[in-house]
Amino acid sequence: MKFHQLRYIHEVVRQQLNISSASEVLHTSQPGVSKQIQLLEEELGLQIFQRNGKRLIGVTEPGRKIVDLAARVILDMQNIKRVGDEYSQEDSGELTIATTHTQARYRLPSAVKQFIAQYPNVKLAIHQGNPAQVTDLVASGEADIGIATENISNDERLSCLACYEWNRCLVVPPEHPLLQKGRLTLKDLAEYPLITYDFAFTGGTLVSKVFHDADLQPNVVFTAIDADVIKTYVNLGLGIGLIANMAYDEVRDAPLRSLDCSHLFPNSTTFLGVRRDAFLRDYMLNFITMLSPQYDKRTVQRAFHQDL
Predict the structure, then answer these.
(1) Quick one: how far is CA 49 from the chain centroid?
(2) According to the model, what pLDDT value does residue 199 have?
(3) Where are the alpha helices (DSSP H) in 27-148?
(4) CA separation for the pair 199, 182 (Å, rounded)
């Protein structure tokens, strides 16, 4: 059994059993990947993959266990390399962050700017997705840190730390009737066409639950993953927009007006998650403190079970 064989089966599964795609990622030939998988299966005396002719169509029951173990081995190898790099290349490396659009657009920029200034030799990458995708990217090892509001704190594969709380505001065109209202109610929101986040994104599930618990059905005419898109369509007169309050800027978003909705919905908490068995390099810990300055590095280390 060789390490590259484990890498091959791991990547084939990541590429949804497409050997051609896996070989491209691995920078090797498709026949070479197929041959090494067959050699591993022969050595183990079992089939890892189900086949229809030469095409892989599934993973066998013992194969699933082997794939899981292979993923652990690969992560351990990555951790070993990170430990080595921590002492031999202290201020260089890579940091991959997975997050939702709202966090990437409105919350991360100041921390990213500070991080790049302090670590110019660290290659930084940001992948965007919905909270479930963010969670999977971190759990699979494709991202080092995940930042999201929904789902991520419920995944047992990850250790999570609360970053901050936020709530919502309503954006409306100038001279909209709701501007003459006093304190808004859920019924007020339900009386107008509503444009908001896709319910798979930033706090959307909580919003849906609040309306449901109040026995109200909002007239959601359009959903998006991007607050800027929501504001664009509000400007076109298609409805009122329910967005994260961090996504509204009075100057930048003029002539739209903002109305407070924080009394209508519970606060949402954005969490930062890492794999439980991942080794975090020093610059990764420092990025976390830049994003959440209420924590010092020692607190972060304890939260993520890092050796002190």
Answers:
(1) 29
(2) 65
(3) 30-44, 61-88, 101-102, 108-118, 131-139
(4) 28
Q: What is the pTM of this model?
A: 0.73
Contact 227, 128 (CB under 8 A): no
Query: Residue 190: what pLDDT?
Result: 94
pLDDT tens for 189-211 read 999 999 998 765 555 578 888 99
| Burial tier of 149 (Cβ tally within 10 Å: 0-12, 13-18, 19+) | buried
DSSP 152-214: GGG-TTEEEEEEEEE-EEEEE-TT-GGGG-SS--HHHHHTSEEEEE-TTSTTHHHHHHHHHHT
d(CA 142, CA 203): 24
State how far the alpha carbon of 38 is from the alpha carbons of 8, 26, 219, in Å: 11, 17, 56
| Residue for token pair 């990170």 | 82
pLDDT < 50: residue spans in the chain: 308
Phi then psi for residue 253, to 5 deg, are: -100, 10
Q: Which residue has the tokens 């194969």?
A: 63
CA distance linking residue 191 with residue 196, whole number of Å: 15
Count of residues in the chain: 308
